[in-house]
């Protein structure tokens, strides 16, 4: 949670910002964080950050292109030093709101808000924090979608259920909400929409900045047709890959699933497999032949991942304790698998 003082400070920044640019992480929590703030002040532009793990300096050109007077960074764990340097050069205020652990050294001029600094053990999605700031009741549904997309059921979920009883489900639990309710379907629609071409993503943002209710997203219309189309396409692929993954399940503790093709959906596959096989450690590897994108789910997987990739050339990885992503070279995948299996046999 943010403190009242932090909330007031962020509000003040938002009020001062006449034409802010909101850089946000490429997932529904990032997207919903942007929507909450943009819809609150009814100003500013959104830019999806596709670079990982950090916001790279390339994105700085957007500040000039959009003629921005304020920079907001939402739900992004790391920001490059060069990006900060460029901001500092033109004296533009930076407000960074996030909930991940970071290795970035935050410069003095930047305003950094992270609930981990208030309470180290907390897990509070960025959209929760943004809703705390705006408190705009009409947009509560957006905050709920952001939170459940990050696997967190917020304390205002019951209020949501009262307002939209047909969209939630009784169990009030994740991941059931995500996979079995209409609310979850909206989160999946947003998630799919973000994986589209830039021009289509921009159209989606424009639509979501204006849409009044969750039903407006759920029901297909001329304004959201592309979003639905993209969802149907990705969901079709995902159903097929899940069926393939089910075939490699054995009695072991680790479910190791490799796939290729033109679409990388490791995060979504890993989440769904974790839902289907909650007791297993899930490893989903998307191999391009050059590099591999890996998603891991399970108890202490961050710790395990960091041990496994130690010494791998050009390997990156990180995230939450029980949900992490990594990038390694294709040639290291065999060793990755070996080391991970050895490590899980130990505990
Ligand atoms: Mn998040």
Could you walk me through the main structural features you see in this protein, from its secondary elements to its overall organization?
The protein has helices at 4-16, 28-41, 61-65, 81-89, 115-118, 126-134, 140-149, 157-163, 176-180, 182-194, 198-210, 214-218, 225-247, 266-276, 301-308, 333-346; strands at residues 20-25, 45-49, 54-55, 70-74, 78-79, 94-97, 111-113, 254-259, 281-287, 291-297, 316-320, 323-329. By secondary structure, it is an alpha/beta fold. It folds into two domains: 4-229, inorganic pyrophosphatase (n-terminal core) (Alpha-Beta Complex), CATH 3.90.1640; 248-346, Diaminopimelate Epimerase, Chain A, domain 1. The strands form three sheets. Strands 2-1-4-6-7 form a five-stranded parallel beta sheet. Strands 8-9-10-12-11 form a five-stranded mixed beta sheet, sandwiched between helices. Strands 3-5 form a two-stranded parallel sheet. Strand 8 (254-259), helix 14 and strand 9 (281-287) form a beta-alpha-beta unit. The two termini are 34 Å apart. The model has no long low-confidence stretch (mean pLDDT 96). The chain binds manganese (II) ion. Manganese (II) ion binds at residues 29, 75, 99, 125-126, 150.
